[in-house]
Amino acid sequence: MNPARKITVIAITISATSLLFYLRGTIYASFLERIKIISPELHFNITRAEASLKKTANLLHFPYWFRKTRLPVYNLYIDEKDIYKISSILPNYDPEAKTGASPENFAFIDGFFASGDYRDKIEVRFRGHRPVHWESAKRSLLIKFPKDRLFEKMRSIDLIAPITKEYAALEIVNNYRLKEMGLVPTNLFLVWLKINGGDAGIYLAKERYSAEWLEKNGLPPNSEVFSQTGLDSSWSRDIYEQKESFAELDTLFSLLRETDDVFYKNIGNILDLNKIYRAIAFNVIAGGTHSQGQNLNFLFNGATGKLEPLLEDTAIFYGRNNKEPVEVYNEINVFSRRILSNENYYNDYKKVLREILSSISLEKDLALFDTLQSQIIVELYKDQAKYYPDFVFKEVFQEQRTSIIDNYQVAQKLAEAKELPVFSAEDFSKTTAQLVEGGEFSNFFDISKTGEEFIAANPQFFLSYSTSTRDPIGNLTLKTGTYAFRKNVVIPANFNFVIEQGTHLFLASGVSIVSYSPIKAIGSAEKLIIVERLYPKNAWGSIAVINTKESSRLENIIISGGSSSEEINGVTFTGMLAAHGAPIFIENAIFSLDADDDALNVKQTTGAVKNSKFYDTVGDAIDLDMTSNFVIENNKFFNIGTGPEGGDAIDISFGDPFINKNMIDKCSDKGVSVGEKSFPEITDNIIKKCEIGIAVKDESRALIKNNSVLNNTTGIALYQKKSIFGGGTAILENNILSGNLNDITQDKQSMIVR
Question: Given CA atoms 339, 343, 348, 350 in this order, what sign does their dihedral have?
């Protein structure tokens, strides 16, 4: 064929392709919908042929077709008959009814997955609630890996067609912004997919929420992710799918029907308002659609008992630079709009917005976007399974870049806006949710009780107000004396819970005292505060403090015979004494004879334990989860872990505590257990007669200096315990290891630095 004829053929082909794109939105689209109903197999072949035809419009970039992808390559093998099978049950989309797909519309089929050194059978199906995910040859997929063989520490992943995410660059930038703004990001990355040996092209991969995802993010195992499952906005559980209760959401939704007085008094007890403010700010700066619109997802934090915004699908709103502030805020969800309707909450939100604007860099975000789009566009040129021709992408990316700047400028205007946004009236009665009586949130309204309301229900306490400050703080006090508690007590927020010296508390079986106000329990050497069992053979529950800004202080106190408590306002407390999101400082205390997981459990806060004693504990003595700058100093531990599952003297995860000058003598498991990405300093301790003196595992890095590790089965052990983490690293300086059966053990994943 001569050159002129080749050029003519190419021109005709490109013209035909352009005509195809015009028809695709009109007559051709209607034709394809009919074919899909009549013959799914024919529809599949037509869309495959259509994808091939569109490649001819990309001849200018044909050198890219032969380049090796720089992305991770995922190989997926599926029987062609199974592909036709799952294609035949794809849902029909009704644009007038605006109905989409639900998971029950899709069926899993067996497949085989290979990437790097990983090879195993998997389950795969289509995914997505809108037709754009599955109406063309390049379809979004969900892959589930075997439960006993995770892939790169992931249980399941979505492979999302980039067309649904505006080609992914902005999605990844916005996901990076989430972490900068103090919110939980999703695990997003780009991959190259091959199906049965053929290139399916570039995909955006996203790790699905799972128990492993919770653990990797340092979240309590009783946390949950609530997602809206489709265009009908129904809700589902992503972690514990079998659990039928939605009490967490019921509690939130019930407040929407309440008066302003009840709503504003209680909304901060079920929603993490600081993170809600950050989510609204993110929405303004980054322009997420699902992220703060009607399809908002929630993370229920099992440590705090609060719902947090979980932002994903962070696409962008275009053309915001001409919008009035109220128009931008109308795009967020109904809860956030009602919160911003209150002047005090609105001013608190603006402080957060200004803080975020001062900490982020538009130039840095644009540079990241430019880098990503340049990388992605090369892969898109190579990708011949994509829907649109190559000339579309530069225009799309330029529009996105302009919108990044526009949205940032809008955010700056909103940060300085003085007027309170006014929203149209909402019909809050639409929700059918009810606050469950007698359920796990039956004590919810106790959190916001007035002092008088609390005293009326709990006459053992004395109510007083300090007059030393402009805004008097109430004290709910147990005066010196002896008290017996036979039912749970919930101390409301915004007080001080005071236990006077010389007070003796007896708690009945399973009874807990949960305080949403800081605890001030300061005894003396002569007049100790004592907490113990009312019935010698029956353990009580927990004394817990939760969600306080001000620190709790406990001094010269003896606590014995407790266990744990479950589902008080959605929170499980695993410690005889527990502090969740509430700074706590303990000195000259004695803990003993507990009956469950931990004598002391601290989550997501800071504090210290000094000059205290722990002995005869059934499980761990001290368990720290996600703490910051915690100090454990000059304490004594004896006979730790007497129960069938054993226990550690000090167990830490996701923390950086300073562990100094402690004596640990006889524990059935570990003297100090360093796990889950922890970075402690362990100095000048004596650790003896334990199964393992010090264990460093699961991507932790510990400085171990000037310790005496004596007469243990293993002195120092470094290893990977959980498959979702790596090994451990220990920096060893001037330690004495003597009398141990094994001084040091180390697996291949771990490292010692001397």
Answer: positive
Q: Are 663 and 686 in contact (CB under 8 A)?
A: yes
Identify the three-state secondary structure at position 11.
helix
> Residue with structure tokens 């996901």?
175
Beta pairing, strands 571-573 & 543-546: unpaired
Alpha helices in 207-332 (DSSP H): 211-216, 247-256, 260-266, 273-286, 325-329
Task: Please provide residue 652's backbone torsions phi and psi, each rounded to the nearest 5 degrees.
Answer: -125, 145
Q: Where are the alpha helices (DSSP H) in 654-741?
A: none
Q: What is the pLDDT of residue 11?
A: 43
Q: Do 248 and 433 form a contact (C-beta atoms < 8 A)?
A: no
Question: Alpha helices of 316-422 — where are they, by DSSP H?
Answer: 325-329, 334-340, 343-359, 362-382, 391-416
Give the integer Cα–Cα distance in Å for 520 and 526: 18
CB 486 within 8 A of CB 508: yes
Alpha-carbon torsion (610, 612, 615, 617), positive or negative: negative
Q: Note the Cα 422 to chain centre separation in Å.
A: 32
**Percent helix, strand and coil across the chain, each to the nearest 5:** 30, 30, 40
Alpha-carbon separation of residue 536 from 12, 104, 234, 562 (angstroms):
92, 53, 49, 11
Instruction: State CA 372 to chain mean position distance.
Output: 25
Domain boundaries, the chain: 1-60, 69-428, 473-697
- Residue 95, amino acid: P
**Tokens matching residue 58:** 């990309």
User: Rounded to whole angstroms, how far apart are CA atoms 680 and 404?
Assistant: 40
Which residues in 120-131 are b (16+ Cβ under 10 Å) and which e? eebbbbbbbbeb
**CA distances, 625 to each of 541, 600, 603 (Å):** 20, 11, 5
Which position has the token pair 């939980």? 184
Number of Cβ within a 10 Å radius of residue 603: 29
pLDDT tens-digit series, residues 124-141:
988 877 777 776 778 889
Kindly give the pairing relationship between strand 584-592 and strand 613-617.
parallel
Choice among 158-172, 258-272, 434-448 with the minimum mean pLDDT: 434-448
The three-state secondary structure class of 552 is strand
Predicted confidence band of residue 482 (pLDDT cuts 50, 70, 90) = very high
**Which tokens belong to 471?**
């805004």
Closest to 531 in 3D by CA, of 575, 592, 477 = 592
DSSP conformational letter for 436: P
Contact 497, 523 (CB under 8 A): no
What is the fold, at CATH topology level, of the domain defined by 473-697?
Answer: Pectate Lyase C-like (2.160.20)
pLDDT in tens, 647-675: 999 999 999 999 999 999 999 999 999 99
Q: Any residues with CB less than 8 A from the CB of 564 and at least 6 apart, and which? A: 541, 542, 572, 573, 574, 575, 576, 596, 597, 598
Residue position matching structure tokens 């001000």:
550
Q: Please report, in angstroms and rounded to a whole number, the separation of the first and last CA atoms in the chain.
A: 72
Rounded distance between C-alpha atoms, residue 345 and residue 338, angstroms: 10
The answer to whether 714 and 697 are in contact (CB under 8 A) is no
Residue 92, number of CB atoms within 10 A of its CB: 11
E strand intervals along 105-209: 109-115, 118-126, 141-144, 156-160, 188-195, 198-207
Amino acid found at 370: D
Closest CA to 699 of 187, 218, 223: 218
Token readout for 221 is 């195992």
Tell me: the pLDDT tens digits for 42-97?
Answer: 665 666 566 555 556 666 676 777 788 999 999 999 998 887 777 776 665 554 44
